[in-house]
Amino acid sequence: MDNLKRQVGIEAAKFVKNGMVVGLGTGSTAAYFVAELGRRVAAENLRITAVTTSSVTSAQARKLNIPLKDIDEVEAIDLTVDGADEIDQTLNGIKGGGAALLMEKIVATYSKDYIWIVDESKMVAHLGAFPLPVEVVPFGCGQLFRLFEKSGFKPTFRLDDKGALWLTDSGNHIIDLHMNEISAPEKLARLLDDTVGVVEHGLFNDMVKTVIIASETEGVKIVTK
Ligand SMILES: O=C[C@H](O)[C@H](O)[C@H](O)COP(=O)(O)O
C-alpha cells in the first residue's frame, strides 16, 4: 500500500513546475507528494511557494524547507494535490478521514488545477462505506448529533486518543456519519450545507477533474473527467 501511495505521490509531483503556487494536501498519500516536492526543492532547486491544508502538512513542509505562505498572501493557487478516502465513478469523493476537510475544501476551491492521488482501494461504485466526516461548531453540537440520529445518519463523534472530542485545526469537532451507501451525494451535500452548525462536510462533489490511481496489477494510471 505504501508503495502505491509513493508512486502516485511521485507521479503528481511531475505536474509541479518552477514558479508555481502549490496547494499541499493532507494524509498519508499526500505526504508522499510533499516528500517528493521537498526532494526536488533540495536536489533540483525547484522554486515553488506552497499553501497547506493542515498543521500536520505545514510541519512536514517546513522540515523539508518548502517555502510556505498563508492562503491569503497568494494571488492564486496553480495546482493542489491531495488524497481522498473514497472516489466514485463520476469522480465525486469523500475526504476528511484525517479531519482536514475544511481547509482542504477551501484550498481546492481557490485552485486552478486540482488532482487527487490514491491507491486502487479508494475507488468505489458508491460513496458511503467510508464514514462521512462533518465538521461542526462546538456550540450546540450535541443537538446537531441528535438531529443526525433522527435523520438515520448513524452519527458518531470523532474522539482523540485521550477520548476527548476531536479538535480540528479550526477549533471545531467532527461527527462521522455511517451511512453505508450515499445514493444521492449532491442532495446530501445540499442538506448538510443548509444545516445550522455544520461548518463543512467531506463530500467533494464535482471538484476534481484528474485522479492518479496506482494498482498492483496496472501500475499508475491517470483518469480525467
Ligand atoms: O482529512 C484528510 C484528508 O481528506 C485525506 O486526504 C484523506 O483522509 C486521505 O488520507 P490517506 O491518504 O491517509 O488515506
From TrEMBL:
<keyword id="KW-0413">Isomerase</keyword>
<protein>
    <recommendedName>
        <fullName>Ribose-5-phosphate isomerase A</fullName>
        <ecNumber>5.3.1.6</ecNumber>
    </recommendedName>
</protein>
<feature type="binding site">
    <location>
        <begin position="82"/>
        <end position="85"/>
    </location>
    <ligand>
        <name>substrate</name>
    </ligand>
</feature>
<dbReference type="InterPro" id="IPR004788">
    <property type="entry name" value="Ribose5P_isomerase_type_A"/>
</dbReference>
<comment type="subunit">
    <text>Homodimer.</text>
</comment>
<comment type="pathway">
    <text>Carbohydrate degradation; pentose phosphate pathway; D-ribose 5-phosphate from D-ribulose 5-phosphate (non-oxidative stage): step 1/1.</text>
</comment>
<comment type="function">
    <text>Catalyzes the reversible conversion of ribose-5-phosphate to ribulose 5-phosphate.</text>
</comment>
<dbReference type="GO" id="GO:0004751">
    <property type="term" value="F:ribose-5-phosphate isomerase activity"/>
</dbReference>
<dbReference type="InterPro" id="IPR050262">
    <property type="entry name" value="Ribose-5P_isomerase"/>
</dbReference>
<dbReference type="GO" id="GO:0009052">
    <property type="term" value="P:pentose-phosphate shunt, non-oxidative branch"/>
</dbReference>
<feature type="binding site">
    <location>
        <begin position="95"/>
        <end position="98"/>
    </location>
    <ligand>
        <name>substrate</name>
    </ligand>
</feature>
<feature type="active site" description="Proton acceptor">
    <location>
        <position position="104"/>
    </location>
</feature>
<feature type="binding site">
    <location>
        <begin position="26"/>
        <end position="29"/>
    </location>
    <ligand>
        <name>substrate</name>
    </ligand>
</feature>
<dbReference type="InterPro" id="IPR020672">
    <property type="entry name" value="Ribose5P_isomerase_typA_subgr"/>
</dbReference>
<dbReference type="InterPro" id="IPR037171">
    <property type="entry name" value="NagB/RpiA_transferase-like"/>
</dbReference>
<feature type="binding site">
    <location>
        <position position="122"/>
    </location>
    <ligand>
        <name>substrate</name>
    </ligand>
</feature>
<comment type="similarity">
    <text>Belongs to the ribose 5-phosphate isomerase family.</text>
</comment>
<dbReference type="Pfam" id="PF06026">
    <property type="entry name" value="Rib_5-P_isom_A"/>
</dbReference>
